[in-house]
Every structure is written in structure tokens, then in C-alpha cells.
Recover the amino acids of this structure.
């Protein structure tokens, strides 16, 4: 794997993917964008509905 370090993943590291695990906040996910692999930390944002004044 090449690219910037994230969560102690370094250039040349091999990543193992378990597709049976449901991604949760803070997990590292592997994606294919434009036929290239990339990995990112996933962040879920929680929006709260507010009553109009």
C-alpha cells in the first residue's frame, strides 16, 4: 500500500479486508475510486432535528 500514513498504516504494508464486518465510526475502510484503491477512516455524523421557532 502506498500513500500517507493513517492509523499506523505505512507504505508497503499489506492490508487484509474482512467484508463481513459492518463499517462503524472510526473504522478504516478500503474503497476503489477511478480503478485505484484508497483507504480512509470512516466518520459518521449525527444530525439533530431542531424545531422551528
Amino acid at each position: 500500500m502506498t500513500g500517507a500514513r493513517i492509523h499506523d498504516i505505512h507504505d508497503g504494508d499489506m492490508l487484509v479486508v474482512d467484508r463481513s464486518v459492518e463499517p462503524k465510526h472510526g473504522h478504516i475502510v478500503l474503497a476503489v475510486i477511478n480503478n485505484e484503491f484508497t483507504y480512509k477512516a470512516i466518520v459518521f455524523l449525527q444530525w439533530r432535528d431542531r424545531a422551528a421557532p
Summary: The chain has one domain: 1-44. The chain has no helices and two strands. Residues 1-44 form one domain.
